[in-house]
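I'll show one example:
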Amino acid sequence: QVQLVESGGGLVQTGGSLRLSCAASVGTFSNYAMGWFRQAPGKEREFVALINLNGATTYYADSAKGRFKISRDNGENRLYLQLNSLKPEDTAVYYCVADPRGPEPKWGQGTQVTVAS
C-alpha cells in the first residue's frame, strides 16, 4: 500500500523560498515516476513537475520552469520540490503523486503554500 506524506509548506513573502518534501511508503520507491501537482482555491488541480525513476529526467509546467526544482532520493524514499522566487499566484495546496501517468496514481494529503504579497 502506497502512503505519501507531504511537508514543508507554510507562509512566505513574495520572492521567498520553500522546500517541500514527500515521504513515501511504497513497495519500491524507485519503481515509480513521481510528481508534484497543486490546487489553488476555486481552481482545478494542475501539474507542476515530474521526475522519472532514477531522477535523471525532469519535466516542468511553464509556470515552474526556472523557479522550481524537483528531485528525489531513492535511498531515503523521498521526493522534493524546491520553490524559489515565489509569487502570490503560487499559493495553493501542493500534492505529491506516485505514478502520475499510470492508471492509478497515488496522492498524498497535500501541504499548503501561501505566498504573501
